[in-house]
Structures are given as C-alpha cells and as structure tokens.
Amino acid sequence: MDVPAGDSGSAGILGLSGAAVLLYRWTVVHAHLSRDTLARAAVETGIDDHEAARALDALLGACLLQEVPAAPGNPGVRWQPVSPQAAASRLLSDRDAALRAQEEALRSQRRRIQEEQDGLAALTPVYLQARQHSFPQGTIDHLPDKFAVRTLLTEVIDSCRSEVLVSKHGGSFPVAALREALPRDLALLERGIRMRSLYQHATRFDQPTRTHAEQLVAAGAEIRTLPEVLPQMIVVDRALALLPARSGGALLIREPDLLGYLLDVFERDWANATPYATGPQAAHGVSQTMKQSILVMLAKGLKDDTIARRLGISLRTCRRHVSELLENLGAHSRFEAGVIAERQGLTRHHVPATSETPATPTEAATLATPAEAEPPTAGAGPGPAPTAATCPACGNPFPARPVRPANGRPARYCSPACRSRAYRDRTRRAVAGQVATATGADDRHETP
C-alpha cells in the first residue's frame, strides 16, 4: 500500500523531520515496522535509506514507536506505533512531575512569606501605641498596604468609645467592600457608637450602595450627601484619622492641629450636606443639587469628563445632564449656558435644597427637567399659590379636593393638562427672553 507523501508543513512537529513524520504515518497504516520492512517503507514514502534510519531513531526517541516481543519463527526486532497522547504522557511524565514538585515548593515558600508578613503586620498596633506613648503630642505614620490598614482599622473600631466619622468619595462602592463593611458597622451601631457618614449625591442612584446606606440608617447611622466630598477619610473618637496615601496604604494621623483641621472641614461639609432619604421627592431634590453643581462647573469651563469624575457619575450620565440643562436654559452651547446661568444667578453657592431650606422657584424651574418642574401660576412671579376658586390656565372652577393634599402643597391648576400647558407657556416666554439677551452677548463673544 502506498502512503501519500506529507506536505512541507508537517516538518517540525515535535522537532521531527518530514521524513520521520512520513515514516510514522506509514507505520500507523501498516500496524508495525521492522528492520526488514524499513527499506520498503523508505521506497513507498519517497525517502532514502539514510533518512529512513535517522527517522527511525527520531521516532524511537519521541516514544512514538515501541518495541514488541518477537513472534515465533520471526526473531527480528519489530516496533508498533504509539498514539501521540500516549507518547507525550510517557515522554513528559518525568518532567511534569518535576514541575509539579517545583510548583508545590513555590506555593510553600509563598505561604511562609505571607505568614511572616502577617506576623509582622500584627505588630502594627503595638508599634503605633508605643509611638503614641513616646510622642504624646501626636504623630503621622504611614501604613504600607491594605492588609496593615485593615488590621489597624479593626483594632481602632473595636476600641472606639464615642463616634466614628466617615467621608467616602465616589458614585458607587464595590459590592465586596460593602459586604465586608456592613457587619462591622452594624456591630458598631449596636454598641451605641454614633456614626456619621458623608457620601456623594450619585450614591443615591446606585442600587447596592443605596441598599447598604438604608440598612445603616435603619440601624441608627446618620448619612448625608454632597455633590463633592473629601477623598476617603475615617476619624475615630476625634483622636485618630485615616487618610489614603498616594503611594498605597494609608496615613495614620494623631497630630492634634491636623486633626482639628480635618474635623472642621468635615463639620462644614456636614452642615451643608443633604440628609439621606429615600423616595421620589428626595431623589428629585438631590438631582437639582447635582445639576446646580454641573452648572457651576460649566461656567468655569470644565470638561465633561472632569465634571463626571468630581461628581462621581458616569460620563454618559454627565452628558445627559448637560444636554438637559442646555435645553432648559435655551442655550445652544456650553459657553452660552454658562453666560445665562451667571446672569440668572444660578451659579452662586447656596445650601442644597432640603425640606428645611427649599430652593427658590426660579432655580427649581431652571434646573428641573420638564417632567420634574412645578411651575408657578402663568403670568405671575414667584410667590404663594393662588387662592382663587378658578384655574388660572383654563378658567374652570377647581374640583373638590381634600383639605390636606397628599403632596403637602395646595393645588395650582385644576388638572395635569392645565399645569403642563401653563408650564409650556411660561417656558416659551422665558426662552424667548433668554435668547434675546444672549443675542447681545453673541455680538461680543464668539460662540464656541
């Protein structure tokens, strides 16, 4: 039986030559090979006797041929082919076992190194306590890695006596970190320790972070939010603070003057922050404050990615808010929006709107989206709701309503359709006036 010659691409398989591959194929087809049939195999595969001899040695070295006992009456040596899988197992088993032994040795060394590192890290509280005793006026120490930070944090939290202050930057927190922190924080609250936390407004719209915050609030924690907060900071009993270090790990601060500064900054932000609450109205108020912050940053000329990073929101969400603000202001560019916002006083700093300090009607109407805004009476300026018995939009009498409306505000229109119609009229007039004002600015400034 003739065996077709292999192509040149077969050369180099397992370091075998093309002649060795052809001879191996011939042996598989004929089920065995011997010294007597080697010459025949060479002729049928198109290789010379010298190449056939070298190919036989290569196949034996690669364990692709194995010797079989001589048959009765045929004392010559014969070989039968071995599958590549079996040959690889036989050829590489010793080397694989050696590599496995080396891997196990490496794992054992890593375990010993980790155990030594853990043992040294466990001395961190002892070192810090000794430093505090030697330098009672206060110190600043550097914790080298996250493990040392966690070890110390567990130590100081367990020994906390009165209060823990937390400031966290970011619009969402890793689920694993929230899962790890929740039992520790709940145990702290059960001991009667006061816990106050400052988050960014964007955390109210992240489901895992919102669920975590609601659990803490239900257990007695106090949480407030701001558009921007300090990078992560933890202050325990007003005597120790942990701040993130740029080089990794954290800074442990006991120095009284620096602690006093950090506490003053936290209390200032706490006074200006919005208490954490759930429900549509709370989310509406926070949305207005975030849009106010975006307006301020637009007026300063900041780019979308910078605004998104500072507010802890995604770039896509930031661009959607910017687009809504441009539409509500009647602006055609970011520059024009900044000019209009400055002229209307919308970029001045003010305390975020809460139930105690509501936003002015002008600010709320400008920052709200059309579905959120609650417009005043058509043709009237900001002020209390009208007491007339007829709807100012259509002139029809008001239907009978309960004495205390569900939303806590007296009705201004007889139906949602009238309210929407009045809002559209008011918005159309406001946009017309703003465009006329902006036209004068365009004569002096080239719109980007």
**Major sheet:** 8 strands, mixed
Mean pLDDT, to the nearest integer, reads 74
| Strand arrangement, major sheet | 4-10-9-8-5-6-7-11
Strand content: 5-15%
What percent of residues adopt helix (DSSP H or I)? Answer: 40-55%
The parts where pLDDT drops under 50 for at least 5 residues are 1-12, 350-388, 401-409, 441-448
Shape: elongated
Order of helices and strands: HEHHEEHHEHEHEHEEEEHEHHHHHH
Q: In angstroms, what is the radius of gyration?
A: 39 Å
- How many helices? The count is 15
Distance between the termini: 83 Å
Question: What's this model, at a glance?
Answer:
This protein is α+β, with helices and mostly antiparallel strands. The protein has 15 helices and eleven strands.
Polypeptide structure, described:
- The protein has 448 residues and is α+β, with helices and mostly antiparallel strands.
- The protein is built from 15 helices and eleven strands.
- The protein has an eight-stranded mixed beta sheet, with helices on both faces. The protein has a three-stranded antiparallel beta sheet with strand order 1-3-2.
- It starts with 17 loop residues before the first helix and ends with a helix.
